[in-house]
Amino acid sequence: MTAAWLRVDLLRRWRSLLVLALLVAFAAAAVLTAVAGARRGDSAADRLDAVTLPATVEVRPEDPAFDWNAVRDLPGVEAVALAAPTTWAIDGPGAGGEAFESPADGELLRSVERAVVLDGRLPDPARPDEAVVTPSFVDQHGLGVGDTVTLRLPAAGAVETRIVGVIRSPLLSDSPQQPGRLLPSAGLFAAHPEDFAGPGGVELSGLVRLAPGWTEQAFLTDLAAATGRSDIIVWPHAASMAYVRRIAGIESAALLAFAGAAGLAAVALVGQALARYAAATAADLRVVAALGLTPAQAHRTAAAAPGLAAAAGALLGVVAAGIASRWFPYGFAAYVEPDPGADLDLVVLGSGLVLIPALAVAGALLTARRVWSDAAGAGRAGPARRPGAASRRSAVVALASRYGLPVPVVVGARYALESSRGPAAVPVRPALAGAAVGVLGILAAATFSAAVSDATTNPARYGQVHDLEAPLGVDGAETVPAGDVLAAAAADPDVVAVNDSRVAVAIAAGESVAVFSLDSVAGRFDPVVLEGRLPERGGEIALAPYTAEALGAGPGDRIELAGTRDRRELMVTGLTFLPESEENYYAVGAWVTAAGYDDLFTGYGVRVAHLVLRAGADPVAVADRLSGVLPAAGDGGAAVRQRLERDSSPELLQLQRLPLFLAGFLGVLAVGAVGHALASAVHRRRHDFAVLRAVGMTRPQCRGVVLTQSSVVAVAGLLIGLPLGVALGRTVWRYVADATMVHYVPPDVTLLLLLAVPVTVLVANLLAVWPSQRAVAPRVGPVLRAE
After folding, report:
1. Which has the closest alpha carbon to 424: 57, 691, 668?
2. C-alpha–C-alpha distance, residues 610 and 594, integer Å
3. Is residue 70 part of a domain?
4. Among 541, 546, 486, residue whose Cα is nearest residue 518
5. Given this model, what pLDDT does residue 578 score?
6. How far apart are CA 438 and CA 367, in angstroms?
7. Could you give the CA distance from residue 676 to residue 265 in angstroms, rounded to a whole number?
8. Backbone phi, then psi, for 328, in 5-degree steps?
9. Pair 248, 273 in one domain
């Protein structure tokens, strides 16, 4: 029986089944692509580490005479690759200059940072004219394998270099909105050593790969013991990859949320279409019941065609998801994906191929069973039972009736809030849930987007509260008369605060910590405090969040620091940000008082005056004015410059997009659910409308019923979605701010709230325009005679 009916159904309603299959395919492709992309992105960094030999730390002694054998001989050190700094410029497309480090031996790209070759090959270490580039370099400059680029070095001048490969490794990965990288062979350093030498010689840095299980803390302790120095700068590259993993994890979670929203939209929209098809088939099969068709046979027959359409749609969705995988992973994870291109996640695609038809068949069986049982119950109850009667009276409708509100308002509120069963049932709960989820998702995404926009345009969110800086000294020696510079800056009418920042490196629990002195010589210099407070006495310290995380310390804990003068135990008073420079990031380091600094160190590595200007002051004008009056230092004078504008926002801009996509899907869900409820109410309650028309309700009043229904659904969605949406948006922003080390400030959503109410009601009423026209279109007599 099932096979025979299915053949008839395919011939009779193949267009409807084709539409159902395409709807399932679209929903399946969206869900499966997002889930597979999330899994791929979440594992990208780990898979890159597994096929490379990533550097654990970078050692920067800033000493041309440094003995690198002392590092190579340390326990736990498996390999050391040396690099030399210089600057270069290129001719041709995308010409420009950039600082970079060139391999100084043959270890880089082989025993350390063994790169994944995406195209071409690695450079020959003996050839000075070969180089490799990262994918972003190819995109930005239009130069790839086989092309020649002219490098212009400070002393050697033009050097023709041929690109032999496109590579990727943990350290040599691109970042969003950052320039691509070119890495020459070690032969360039061997051929032109003069281009890598500073005033005292070549200051090499060393990329160190530690043995598995060997900690950075143990390495730093051994390094200090072997060299007799505690001020060596050590950059933790392994920790940088941990940050990339954290961002990729957030992106993967957002993709999973997107998949969940797409799944909800599929259940609400595609699921309803499949259910309506199964219900119509079950109703048709009632005629065949007189020939001996059992309820179980009817249920299976009603579910056969929707199941077949779902299976075909699932297969198409799997194919589409496989094709779309070439554009994943998304965001930060794309820059560390070791095997870009198409990738078939057999677990996700296979599960979708099985689960989607199974869910469709299960839903069709339930729908057919309900329709069959409702029809049987209606037959037993006789004509006194009216299908579609409300199963529960709404308190809102009861109040509307009690206070004598107009009939269109009462009827519209009943259609919006009172659920029922039977042929005249209106999908009340899906409409209310869709409206609430839509408002919630859009408000949450808008709140999060507003927070990201604020963070990416406000340097204070990254702790950069100063506007100008004036270098005062290096390696313990003043490059300008520091006292005169500080006094001149403090006397400027546009300067409201000046901090004398001395910076030196200390060791705490095996971690290298850049320690800044908090020493306001004018006004009050107030770094951004994330938690707790700034240090006020010599025995106190405030840590940057990354340093606190690395040390496992927080406000109230005590840590021991070893400086160049003494070893001291300090109490952590808070978490704070630091001024950025070429040598440090805002989330790394610590603040101590001037007295605390003197207890720990003799001299300094760097000394800088950080200047805060009054609101509205022009930083360029103030910098020019101060540079003209400050004491001279050699030929160049005491330069006052604007703060370092390092772009710390690419990861936030990447994360900002996914919630907007999610909001779009939830908006589609809301529009579909509300629009379907309005259309269903007009179609299934046409008898009610005909009766109301017959007893005197006018056409405008009939339209008012539908408009009231849509407005009530919109208001219900607003009552639920507005507070939850803002709360969810702020909660997600707090999580992202903590993960990306941004100062959390609740975004101002006043304008969003003011716009949300009229926009939501307007959209709901626009959805009601067409159903309200249909409500008054049929003639009363034919409808009543048909009933």
Report:
1. 691
2. 15
3. no
4. 541
5. 95
6. 26
7. 12
8. -120, 160
9. yes
- 657 and 630 in a common domain: no
Structure confidence at residue 385 (pLDDT): 43
- Kindly tell me the burial class for residue 56, based on how many C-beta atoms sit within 10 Å of its own C-beta (0-12, 13-18, 19 or more): buried
Element (H, E) at 86: strand 77-90
- Residues of the chain above pLDDT 70, percent: 88
3-class SS of residue 121 = coil
Phi, psi of 91 (to 5 degrees): -100, 155
**574 neighbors 518 (Cβ within 8 angstroms):** no
Single-letter amino acid code for the residue at 323: I
What separation in angstroms does the CA of 212 have from each of 77, 215, 768? Answer: 10, 8, 64
Q: What is the DSSP string of 679-736?
A: HHHHHHTHHHHHHHHHTT--HHHHHHHHHHHHHHHHHHHHHHHHHHHHHHHHHHHHHH
* Structure-block tokens of residue 671: 């529009």
Going by their DSSP bridges, the two strands 606-613 and 641-642 should be labelled as unpaired
Q: Which domain holds residue 138?
A: 80-214
Q: 263 with 317: CB under 8 angstroms?
A: no
Q: In degrees, to the nearest 5, what angle opens at C-alpha 133 toward C-alphas 130 and 139?
A: 135
Strand (E) or helix (H) holding 14:
helix 14-51
Domain count, the chain: 4
Confidence of residue 97 (pLDDT cuts 50, 70, 90): very low
Scan for tokens 């409807």, then name that residue.
16
DSSP per-residue string spanning 262-322: HHHHIIIIIHHHHHHHHHHHHHHHGGGGGGT--HHHHHHHHHHHHHHHHHHHHHHHHHHHH
Write out pLDDT tens, residues 149-199: 988 888 888 889 999 999 999 988 888 777 888 999 999 999 998 888 877
**Residue ranges with strand state E in 423-519:** 468-474, 477-478, 495-508, 511-518
Distances (CA, A) of 576 to 312, 465, 528, 586, 746: 57, 12, 6, 9, 18
Contact of 518 with 535, CB cutoff 8 Å: yes
Q: Copy the structure tokens of residue 184.
A: 């020459």
Nearest Cα neighbor of 471 from 462, 480, 463 is: 480
Strand 116-120 relative to strand 157-168: parallel, antiparallel, unpaired? antiparallel
Distance of alpha carbon 742 from alpha carbon 545, whole angstroms: 10
Do 615 and 535 belong together in one domain? yes
Answer whether 176's CB lies under 8 Å from 117's CB.
no
DSSP state of 636: T
Structure tokens at 105: 């031996």
Chain center to CA of 683: 43
Amino acid at 244: V
Q: How far apart are the C-alpha atoms of 119 and 104, rounded to whole Å?
A: 24
Has residue 62 been placed in a domain? no
Amino acid at 673: A
Mean pLDDT of all residues in the chain?
85
Residues paired with residue 543 on neighbouring β-strands, in sequence order: 575, 590
Provide the b/e sequence for 167-183 (b: ≥16 CB within 10 Å). Answer: bbbbbbbbbbeeebbbb
- β-pairing, 495-508 with 520-522? antiparallel
Residue 211 DSSP one-character state: P
Q: Work out the burial of residue 137: count CB atoms within 10 Å of its CB; fewer than 13 is exposed, 13-18 middle, 19 or more buried.
A: buried
Same domain? For 594 and 472 the reply is yes
- Cis bond upstream, residue 758 (ω within 30): no
Are residue 126 and residue 51 in the same domain, yes or no?
A: no
Q: How far apart are CA 1 and CA 14, in angstroms?
A: 19
Q: For residue range 645-655, list pLDDT tens digits in order.
A: 776 677 787 77
Q: Both 295 and 203 in a single domain? A: no
Tokens of 726: 């803002």
What b/e readout covers 648-659, taking b as 16+ CB neighbours within 10 angstroms? bbbbbbbbbebb
Residue carrying structure tokens 């143990």: 218
Greater confidence, 248 or 87? 248
Beta strands in 369-474 (DSSP E): 468-474
